[in-house]
Specification:
Number of domains: 1
Largest sheet: none
Helix content: 55-70%
Low-confidence stretches: none
Order of helices and strands: HHH
Mean pLDDT: 96
Length: about 110
């Protein structure tokens, strides 16, 4: 559910929920791309989010976004620059991230 990606995580349990919904969305996008284009997108481990390796998570996650945006010809954002301990940064990041997913969902017919 794309709507869940607009929720701003505020503690470890809500960050875990975000990671779960984000991974689910990426799997739906991967399946839709495979069905529509016959292509397999790269997948990286993005759930759970390891707090001790957050930078690597950001880069793996960005690689997945870059692949989808490149295939669909959609504009993307730099999602590698966020400090999740700063609410203003996290809020802006969540918005940019969710809009990308929503754009893909509209193109691919998934929600």
């Amino acid at each position: 559910m794309i709507a869940a990606l607009y929720n701003i995580p505020s503690d470890p349990p809500s960050m875990s929920r975000f990671a779960f919904h984000n991974r689910d969305q990426h799997r739906q996008v991967t399946a839709a791309v495979e069905a529509k284009f016959g292509l397999t997108l790269p997948e990286y481990p993005i759930d759970p989010i390891a707090s001790w390796d957050f930078t690597n998570w950001l880069y793996n996650h960005q690689a997945m976004h870059n692949a989808v945006n490149g295939l669909l010809g959609t504009a993307g954002n730099d999602l590698t620059d966020v400090d999740p301990t700063k609410p203003d940064q996290l809020s802006a990041w969540i918005q940019l991230h969710a809009v990308e997913h929503e754009t893909w969902g509209n193109i691919l017919g998934i929600g």
